[in-house]
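PT: before anyone asks, these are the final sequences, not the draft ones from last week. 682 residues across everything. Please model them as a single complex and drop the result in this thread when it's through.
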Amino acid sequence: MDQDTHVPTIKDVAKKANVSAATVSRVLHNLSGFSDRTKRKVLQVAEELGYRPNAIARGLVNKRTQTIGVLFPNVSGGFSTDILHGMEEAAHENGFSIIVCNTARDGERTMKYLQVLREKQVDGIIFASQVIKDDYVTELAAMRVPVVLVNTLASKDSIPYVKVDDQQAAYQATTYLIQNGHREIAMIAGTLGDRLTGLPRLKGYRQALEDHGIPFSESRVAYGDFQLEGGRSAMEKLLSEAPPFTALFAASDEMAIGAMGVAFEGGIKIPRDLSIIGYDDLIVSRMIYPPLTTIHQPLALMGRSALEMLIALIGGKQEVSNRIVQHRLVERGTVRPLARD
Amino acid sequence: MDQDTHVPTIKDVAKKANVSAATVSRVLHNLSGFSDRTKRKVLQVAEELGYRPNAIARGLVNKRTQTIGVLFPNVSGGFSTDILHGMEEAAHENGFSIIVCNTARDGERTMKYLQVLREKQVDGIIFASQVIKDDYVTELAAMRVPVVLVNTLASKDSIPYVKVDDQQAAYQATTYLIQNGHREIAMIAGTLGDRLTGLPRLKGYRQALEDHGIPFSESRVAYGDFQLEGGRSAMEKLLSEAPPFTALFAASDEMAIGAMGVAFEGGIKIPRDLSIIGYDDLIVSRMIYPPLTTIHQPLALMGRSALEMLIALIGGKQEVSNRIVQHRLVERGTVRPLARD
DNA sequence: GTATAGAGAGTAAACGTTTACTCTCTATAT
DNA sequence: ATATAGAGAGTAAACGTTTACTCTCTATAC
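LR: through. Structure below.
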């Protein structure tokens, strides 16, 4: 009766194979200290019993769980999704599992997750595109596990990261609009307070303008939250309050798409009446119509990179260097060259 | 020196508070068997030391990890993403963590994941929209953990699930096209061999046709894989090989969007020249232009439901009943009523 | 023929909790 | 004054592994 509900342990294997648990462990790990005969016997018994090692017990002794915690501001955004995909891939290849956490951009919730991850003894942590508060840093320090950032920075560069050069990318996006003859260019920027992703993109935009002799005007900038709805309301604000503009740079594809929706609803044809360039190159951005001209970030690759950096750190590497990955402007259907006047 | 790298355990707390580890444990779990004085002392010391319980050790003794494994055919699809979001939410509320696995529709890979999840002693497993092979069922049985299915079925209904009524939903979608005056209706169906999601939708389509006196023709059906690319190639095939049609029912939004792309490229205007209805109601479906008319599935809710069912089972509930959630046709911009001839 | 090295394998402690049992008080009932 | 109940707390085993040590052979070197 008991056999029916008992899941076999290493001891069961040991007993049935007439060896000690230690020997079974050695065989299973292919260490030394057993004869060929024993090895065969152990393997056969393990197979027979359907034995699987218990990673929890293993984790307890060698203080490794082969598990990594990943925190996203919103799991369901196309953005997080693409990054997650790359991470998952790399994790699987390296024998790690991923616990996903959706922080919903909420500081308290993030702290709660950090504690859970600590208790679960994850081997490392990745933060994706999220502002890193000091609280987090303190908690992370107490956890004594390596951390890697994707698409964000910690103060004083204290944590390794992989990201693109936001300012340069924004500069390029804006310049592209200018080269297409636009001079009245609005921007939907990221969260106002966000100095890490929001500000550099705004700076790139401003710099491009000024380098081409176009005065920057705060009145042509609206702030969103990188998400669809934020893009929509920013666009509405721009349309009603800003001086007229012929082109728009949105600091995220989601916001660009939100803005496009508002434009369509208002009878503004894209790109005929308004040119738009986004930032991210989500998978959906090429699915929509017209397909979005945007700054491509290799998101899956960035996820993969971050995970590989993290694994190196977990493996004992003392330091990894930050990685600036290459962005790229991809021309699709939402920017129209303006006829010279 | 050692203090510097040592992470405090329950024993450290015990020693510093002059009590036994058992007492600390009792205090922390708010059981009985300690005075108020002791409680205060223990709590204070735990706080001072920055003590956090080790869930791995805990898991070892009470054979619970508060962790759930979730398997998706492709994490980066909008589909999985929305479901995951609902699950993550519910998991967090109930003190569970989620390990995500991307099976890439690969049987071997799935088995590998199942084994990892078994070793990691997850408390339960959720399969999302994936064909359940017999191999899996065997492995799952050996794991002795509860399983719940989302958007799929196992043979003989042996595993509880939450899904919509695919056949009825497809019937409704097709009927809607018919009621809008269409009689030449093509379909992009799911994977040919897939009897679980693919076939019912095909059946619903066929049934609706026949109930309205329209002969079903195999030549107007093309098969995709539920993903974007599959939709594109199916559409190309339909356009070149099928008899002309004025409307199209796609068994997934992704395929519908892929088909729309092909249509646009071919100069076919939607909905003027061709009406399209999809299936899923992904978040992106309302972001694109024109916004997709489709069958809404409450994906996040389904994810949440599945997770709650699973937790009930983990909690010892003997049985949960399957849940058929309500779908809904949402009218947006891709279906045009056909003028009566 | 003895010393010795190394192969093969077992013993037991350790990882950090939880929990069943046990023990010692103090307070109350008789 | 004694029996007894219950509060407060400790002891130790258990969970399933890994691993440092130890032990016993057999084979080889001399």
